[in-house]
Every structure is written in structure tokens, then in C-alpha cells.
């Protein structure tokens, strides 16, 4: 585990222990009882935050997953299964996983309102089923047996808090893993995530499965908390309210889940004491969710921002570790002998149509091993379409694409990326919530901290602990390039990497791109409008116009050809004028 992960896990343990001790030691028994409900709700909210806040999908059936966990615990209690409540709660979580995966399956095709309707329909169906079958032990008033050590209400608070801590620690570690970064990546752009080799179906299903597991745990804990359960505890309305609170509080963060748990538990208590109807709470939660979505900041994020500025004002040391400084680039990929092995990438008679528009027709091109090849052409010539087809982002095309002799037809984008075809985009699609280092881990798993730091220094990006949202647009383009080359694929396809760069930066980038084959062992296909960059980086270029190849060869010769000058008339005149 990295030092930064260890520090944040330790901080989580200390804060939870201090807060738990304060509640346990200072509050009267009734408030400790309420605090237990806060903690149990916070556990469920953490699971919901994973799917909604992190992975960006809508799930309106969190309490149904909790109901599965609670039902399982009730049943294990009735049959007096071995292991007692701690084991039953975990089994309750596991029982909810298949339901989570089943609900995740529509998420592979549906988004937004359609996914919301599917998850809501599941919650409604679960309502009906629960009302019919009742909870085990409900009719005979058989209470769920708590462990002896945690039998009292105060003891059960500690029991629930231990589960909260375990879930928070697990999610904290997960958020720093490649899967955690993949959740953020699919929320930001599924296409860009696939281009990094992330499997979208697997990532979405993992989010739903983990979320359902956590909800199942919370349901099982609720069974032990209340003793006996009724179907209203897990109704569709409860799921809707939980979703609103998760959106408002920012349940993807541990403190957001606790804020949400306090709102869900203590607000109804306040309304009860004021003699106001409970529905007022749900209306306010909905308004709070709208406010959070409109402002783009959840309550937990506001809290973090204020705490950070307070830390700066008080001059306290921040816990962020200093970036490791290294000079060792990752070793280049094992390069095949170019003469013996043939070209890295061969495209033969590629054709693409968008309805009646012929975007590419009979385009053939090859990228020899260890070279940088340019693909240029005026706007609308078909360059991005070419990259989309090669990297697997078009549903269909004519012709063939071969990587090191292997045909890629039929393979989806993430598999092509894993095989060694990596791309960047015309506009950067890096999730802004990630740190620079986490993005590099996502794009190129397995790099050591020293190698990450060296790649970033080489391309001219800030240190790994810098947040992407604090980085300017031009530098994010460089990070795009760093991500693809650090993975050391067979070939990288760079789509206008100099967009947003100054003239000097573009020339520097040209030198870096020319170094890619030697330093990383990857061949390069460069799409670019900046002719100085093309001249500086490429050994061969192919020129397209209206979807067809009009010239190819060494840059100096090809750029002088009349047909190319004609296609580039506007640009040629600009260059002459300059
Ligand atoms: N999704 C689409 N639907 C219909 N037509 C499209 C689509 N995408 C691109 N085209 C058309 O295909 C042709 C090639 O577009 P493409 O974006 O590949 O060109 P380009 O060379 O990358 O242009 P630029 O340099 O401006 O990025 C253009 O005529 C464009 O209008």
C-alpha cells in the first residue's frame, strides 16, 4: 500500500474512533440509539455513492438491496445458523450481490432516465414481493439475536461503527485502485475509458455488485438493530429519499455518507418534535439534491473545501505526500526486429460511411515498427474517422486493420486497447476528479512511482499528486499523450495532440513524439494540423482529402506536391504569408 493510502486510512480510523468514543461516552442512551441508525444509513449511502457519485449511474433501489440483506439475516436467525450476527450480516451482503448484478445488466445499455425507471421498477416490484412474503420471524415476533458482546444499544452502536469503518476503509482503498479510477473514468467518458483498455460492462457490473453488497450489509445490521422488520423499512419511497440524500450530501465520500445518515435519521426526529409531517423531510431532501446538482458541489465537498482553506489559513501541514522524484522511464516494450517482423499497423482499403456521407474510401496505410507516421488533411478529410475505425469506436467499416499481423475486426475498443492500439482524443477526456498520478495508473497499470514521475517529467506534466482539475487544458493534452505512451502499446494514435499548445510547446512536443519509438517501443500515427510539428516528428506522411489518400511519402517531398498544396490551399497561403 502506498504511503498516501496508508495515511488516509489511518486518518479515517482515528477520526471514526474519536467520533465513536465521543458519541458512546458523552451522549445519553437514546441519542446513542439514534446514532446507530445514522451509522447504518451511512453504510448504505456509501454503497449508493459508489454507483451514483463515483460511477455516475442512477440507482433508485438501494433499500431493496438492503431488504435482501435484512431478509437473509432474518432467515438465518430463524434457522439459528452458525456464526451469529457478524457472519449473517456478511452473508446478507453477499445475498444482495446477484440482485445488484441483475440490476446492473440493464445499465450496460441504458443511461439516465431509462436506467432510473428500470431501477425504480425493481424497487416497486420488491415492495410487492416483501408485502407478500413478509420477513422471517415477523409474524412470530422473533427478534434477531445480537452478539453477547454488543447486545446493549451502546454495544450495538460500536458493532455498527466497526462495519462502517470496514466499509469506509475498503472503499478508500478501492477509490485509489485502478478499478476506483475506472469508475470515475466511465462517469466522465465511457469512450475514453474504453480507449484506456477499461471494460465498461465489467466496471459497471462491479459498481452495482459492490454497492448491493454494502446495502445488503446495512440491511442485515438494521435487522439486528430493530430486532424485527416490516416491509415499510425497505420501501421504494425510502430508496428515493436515500438517492436524494446521497446526491445532496455527496455519499461517495465517507463524511458525506455520515452527513446523509444524520439527515435521514435526525431530520424526521426534528420534524416529529416540531409536530410537522414527515413528508416535509423528503421534499427538502429533493430540493437539496436539486441545489447540489445545480451548484455542482455536494455538502461533503463544501465541507472539504472549507476545511482545506482553514488548514491553509492556520498554516497547518497538509497530509498530501510529496511527489516522488525519479528519472527512470519505464523500459521500452520488447521491440520486434522491424525488418523481420513487418509493419506494426496495416490498414487495407478502409471505408467508412455515415449514412449517405462517405467519410473514408479505400484508405490504405501502414505504420512501420519504430516510426512516427503522420496522417494529415484539411478539415473533414476523415482523419478522426480513421482513428475511430482503427481503435474500434465505429460499429462497422469496410476493409481490414491488422496489428502486428493480427486482424482486429470484431474486437471492441477496450480489447483493441489491451492488445496494443491506444489513442488520444481531439478534446481531452481525462476525469478531472483524478490526480495526475491516478490517471497515469489507470492508463498504464503497473508503473512504479518513479516511472510515473519520470514519464510526467519527460512530457512536461506536474507531479503525480496534482489534481487534474488544477491543470490547464494544454497540459492535459500532454497528460493524454503521457497516459498512452506509458502503457507502452504497439502503436499510439495521437489525434491533434498540439491543439491548445503554444508554438514553442508544439515544437517541444514534436521532439517528444519523435522520441516515443525509442523510449517506449511504440510506433506512432500522428494526426495533426500543425505542419511544423508534423515535419519535426514524422518520417513518413499520408495526406487525405475527402476521405481518400491523395499522397504519401517523406514529409518534405509530400508537402511540396501540387495536389497537397491544392488540398491545403488555405493553410499554404497562411504559411507563405507568415
Ligand atoms: N457521426 C457522424 N455522422 C455523420 N457524418 C460524420 C460523422 N462524423 C464525421 N462525419 C463526416 O465525415 C467526414 C470526415 O469527418 P472527420 O471528423 O473524420 O474529419 P477530420 O479530418 O477528422 O476533420 P477535422 O480535422 O476537422 O477533425 C466529414 O464530412 C464529417 O462531416
From TrEMBL:
Primary localization class, coarse: membrane
Pfam families in alphabetical order: ABC_tran (PF00005), BPD_transp_2 (PF02653)
InterPro entries on file: AAA+_ATPase, ABC_AA/LPS_Transport, ABC_transp_permease, ABC_transporter-like_ATP-bd, LivM-like, P-loop_NTPase
Subcellular compartments: Cell membrane
Annotated PROSITE patterns: ABC_TRANSPORTER_2
Parts of the chain that traverse the membrane: 29-51, 58-79, 85-108, 115-135, 155-174, 205-228, 240-267
Domain of life of the organism encoding this protein: Bacteria
GO molecular function: ATP binding; ATP hydrolysis activity; branched-chain amino acid transmembrane transporter activity
UniProt keyword Nucleotide-binding, yes or no: yes
GO CC terms in record: plasma membrane
Topology class, membrane: Multi-pass membrane protein
Protein name per UniProt: ATP-binding cassette domain-containing protein
Lineage of the organism: Bacteria, Pseudomonadati, Pseudomonadota, Alphaproteobacteria, Hyphomicrobiales
Amino acid at each position: 500500500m502506498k504511503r498516501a493510502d496508508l495515511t488516509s486510512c489511518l486518518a479515517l480510523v482515528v477520526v471514526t474512533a474519536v467520533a465513536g468514543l465521543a458519541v458512546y461516552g458523552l451522549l445519553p442512551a437514546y441519542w446513542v440509539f439514534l446514532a446507530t441508525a445514522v451509522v447504518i444509513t451511512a453504510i448504505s449511502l456509501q454503497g449508493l455513492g459508489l454507483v451514483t457519485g463515483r460511477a455516475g449511474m442512477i440507482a433508485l433501489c438501494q433499500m431493496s438491496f438492503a431488504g435482501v440483506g435484512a431478509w437473509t439475516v432474518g432467515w438465518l436467525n430463524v434457522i439459528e445458523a452458525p456464526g451469529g450476527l457478524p457472519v449473517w450480516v456478511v452473508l446478507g451482503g453477499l445475498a444482495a450481490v446477484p440482485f445488484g448484478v441483475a440490476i446492473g445488466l440493464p445499465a450496460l445499455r441504458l443511461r439516465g432516465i431509462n436506467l432510473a425507471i428500470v431501477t425504480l421498477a425493481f424497487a416497486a416490484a420488491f415492495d410487492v414481493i416483501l408485502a407478500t412474503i413478509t420477513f422471517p420471524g415477523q409474524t412470530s415476533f422473533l427478534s434477531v439475536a445480537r452478539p453477547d458482546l454488543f447486545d446493549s444499544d451502546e454495544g450495538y452502536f460500536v458493532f455498527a461503527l466497526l462495519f462502517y469503518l470496514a466499509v469506509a476503509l475498503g472503499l478508500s482503498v478501492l477509490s485509489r485502485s485502478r478499478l476506483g479510477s475506472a469508475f470515475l473514468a466511465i462517469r466522465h467518458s465511457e469512450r475514453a475509458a474504453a480507449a484506456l483498455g477499461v471494460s465498461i460492462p465489467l466496471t459497471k457490473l462491479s459498481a452495482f455488485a459492490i454497492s448491493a453488497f454494502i446495502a445488503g450489509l446495512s440491511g442485515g445490521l438494521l435487522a439486528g438493530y430493530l430486532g424485527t422488520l416490516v416491509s415499510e423499512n425497505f420501501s421504494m419511497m425510502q430508496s428515493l429519499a436515500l438517492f436524494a440524500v446521497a446526491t445532496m450530501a455527496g455519499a461517495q465520500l465517507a463524511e458525506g455518507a455520515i452527513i446523509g445518515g444524520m439527515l435521514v435519521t435526525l431530520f424526521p426526529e426534528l420534524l416529529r418534535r416540531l409536530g410537522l409531517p414527515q413528508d416535509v423531510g423528503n421534499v427538502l431532501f429533493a430540493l437539496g439534491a436539486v441545489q447540489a446538482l445545480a451548484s455542482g458541489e455536494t455538502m461533503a465537498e463544501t465541507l472539504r473545501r472549507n476545511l482545506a482553506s482553514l488548514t491553509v489559513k492556520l498554516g497547518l501541514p497538509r497530509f498530501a505526500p510529496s511527489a516522488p522524484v525519479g528519472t527512470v522511464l519505464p523500459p521500452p516494450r520488447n521491440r520486434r526486429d522491424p525488418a523481420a517482423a513487418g509493419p506494426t499497423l496495416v490498414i487495407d482499403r478502409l471505408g467508412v460511411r455515415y449514412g449517405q456521407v462517405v467519410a473514408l474510401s479505400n484508405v490504405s496505410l501502414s505504420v512501420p515498427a519504430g516510426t512516427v507516421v503522420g496522417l494529415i488533411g484539411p478539415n473533414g478529410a476523415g482523419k478522426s474517422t480513421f482513428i475511430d475505425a482503427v481503435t474500434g469506436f465505429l460499429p462497422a467499416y469496410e476493409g481490414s486493420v491488422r496489428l502486428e499481423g493480427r486482424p482486429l475486426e470484431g474486437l471492441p475498443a477496450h480489447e483493441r486497447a489491451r492488445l496494443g492500439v491506444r489513442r488520444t482524443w481531439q478534446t481531452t477526456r481525462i476525469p478531472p476528479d483524478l490526480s495526475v498520478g491516478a490517471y497515469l495508473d489507470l492508463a498504464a497499470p503497473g508503473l512504479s512511482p518513479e516511472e510515473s514521475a519520470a514519464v510526467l517529467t519527460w512530457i512536461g506534466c506536474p507531479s503525480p499528486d496534482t489534481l487534474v482539475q488544477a491543470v490547464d487544458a494544454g497540459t492535459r493534452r500532454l497528460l493524454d499523450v503521457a497516459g498512452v505512451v506509458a502503457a507502452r502499446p504497439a502503436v499510439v494514435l495521437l489525434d491533434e495532440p498540439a491543439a491548445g499548445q503554444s508554438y514553442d510547446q508544439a515544437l517541444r512536443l514534436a521532439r517528444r513524439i519523435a522520441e516515443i519509438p525509442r523510449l517506449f517501443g511504440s510506433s506512432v500515427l500522428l494526426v495533426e494540423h500543425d505542419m511544423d510539428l508534423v515535419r519535426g516528428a514524422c518520417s513518413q506522411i499520408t495526406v487525405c482529402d475527402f476521405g481518400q489518400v491523395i499522397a504519401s511519402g517523406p514529409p518534405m517531398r509530400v508537402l511540396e506536391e501540387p495536389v497537397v498544396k491544392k488540398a491545403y490551399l488555405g493553410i499554404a497561403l497562411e504559411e507563405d504569408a507568415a
